Amino acid sequence: MTKPVIGVIGNIYSVENRFNVQMAGDKNLYSVKQVADALPVIFAGDPDITDIEDLLQVVDGVLLTGARANVHPSRFNVAPDPAHEPYDEGRDAVALPLIEACIERGVPLFGICRGFQEMAVVGGSTLHPEIRDLPGRMNHRMPRLENGEIHPDPDVVFADRHDVTLTPKGTFANILGSEVIRVNSLHGQGIVTVGDRIEVEGVAEDGTIEAIRFKDAKGFALGVQWHAEYDPVTNPINQALFRAFGDAVRTYRQSRG
C-alpha cells in the first residue's frame, strides 16, 4: 500500500427508522482522499465493534467528524437534559479513549465540530449544549428559513459567517499563514471552560472557542469547531488544514516503518 490510511469515525444512524447503520459523510471521505492524499477508512463508533488497539495497528491517522448528536453531558460531569438529545454514547465510548491513545502515541488526530468537542472533553473542558444561549453570543446554528426549516441551499448553510482570531505565531497561524480567518458555523454545543490540557488558538468575534490543540500531544492533534470538510478543495483555509493533517499522517507512517 502506497497511501497512508486515515480512519474516519462513524455515527449511529437509522435508515427508514428500522435499520441501524454506521455513517460517515462523504465530504469527510473526499477531503481525506483529495486533499490529505490518503485512503479514508470508516470505522464504527461502537465499542462492541471497534477495538482501539486493533484500529491503531491499521490507521496512520484519525479524523473525528461532526455529527448530529452531542457529547453526552455525563462525560463532563453535567446532568443530561432531554431537550438536548440525541446522544450517541457508543461514539463517546470509542472516541474519547481513542483520543487519549492518539495523544499518547503521537497518532495524528484532526477533530471537526463534534470531534473538536470530544477532544475538548478529553482535555478536561466542559461544554454548553446551546452556546447561543449565553449572554453576548451569536447564533452558531445553521441558517434556517422563516418557517424553521433548514435552508435548502448547502452553499448558504456552509457559507463563511464569522471571523476567527488566531494566536499569533501559534500552530494554526503558522499553518494558515494568517492571524484572522473566516469560517462557517453549524453547531449548538461549545466549550465553556477550558481544560488544563487544551491550548486555545482560535476565538470567534463573540468569544466562542473555535480552534484548539492538545498541549501534551506527541504529534498533530488539532480541533476546529467549524466544518472544514465542506470545501477544502476550493477553500484555502480548510485546504491548508487538511494538507497539514495529510503531511503529519505521512510522517507518522514513515516513522512506523
What would you say this structure looks like, in words?
The protein is α/β, with parallel strands linked by helices and 257 residues long. It has a single domain (5-255), classed as Rossmann fold, CATH 3.40.50.880. The chain is 28% helix and 24% strand. It contains 7 helices and 13 strands. The strands form 3 sheets. Strands 4-1-5-6-13-12-11-8-9 form a 9-stranded mixed beta sheet, sandwiched between helices. Strands 2-3 form a two-stranded antiparallel ribbon. The protein has a two-stranded antiparallel ribbon with strand order 7-10. The longest helix is centred in the last third of the chain and has 20 residues, at 236-255. The two termini are 13 Å apart. The model has no long low-confidence stretch (mean pLDDT 92).
Task: Write a compact overview of the structure shown.
The chain is α/β, with parallel strands linked by helices and 257 residues long. It has one domain: Class I glutamine amidotransferase (GATase) domain (Rossmann fold). The protein is built from seven helices and 13 strands.
